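Notes to self, Maf-like protein:
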Amino acid sequence: MASFKIILGSSSASRKQILSEMGYQFTVMGADIDEKLIRKEKAEDLVMALAEAKADAIIAKLKENGFEEGNSEPTLLITADQVVLHGGEIREKPRDADEARQFIKGYSKGHASTVGSVMVTNLKTGVRKGDWEKAEIYFHEIPEEVIDNLIKEGDVLYVAGGLMVEHPLTSPFVEAMVSSLSLSSFVQTMVGTIDSVMGLPKALTERLIKEAIQEQ
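result:
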């Protein structure tokens, strides 16, 4: 039983699923920020800035609602963000179905990268720990009819780069995934980390939770 409470600062179904798989109980709050107002040249800087902005927005909302940390167990706020890199360009959520189609067609017989951040804020101590992880995804040819069905279904319109490798229509055309985690001083490489591509890397999240709890 965890000796802390968790607020997941994301309405993403994938992140809720992953955090549940990790064995945690949590409440959910959305940040409701205009992500387009935050711009950075590097994807890693952008996702970190967005995760931090989401945390700040949720903390402000909690204070408005009279939230106070008592003397019991702390509350951890987890925020995250993700973008897709393809052809040297940063891709966020598609503007419309046409752009989503263009994105997905570009991945066919090629590869894309996801860059995702996780930020854990201890609301009792103010300690904030964050990091990012990058994953490379390699694709077989994605048939036009599969792309049509993905667009028609619509879920790809609400994720970075229109990329949902875990989707049953997409997953048969994923050739390989390789993930690398930035740990400030070194890089750890692992294969097939689907949770990283889905927007909440389990190992990274677990590490940041421990760091946010342990540091006073």
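- The chain is about 30% helix and 25% strand.
- Strands lie at 5-8, 27-28, 75-86, 89-91, 111-122, 128-139, 174-182, 187-191.
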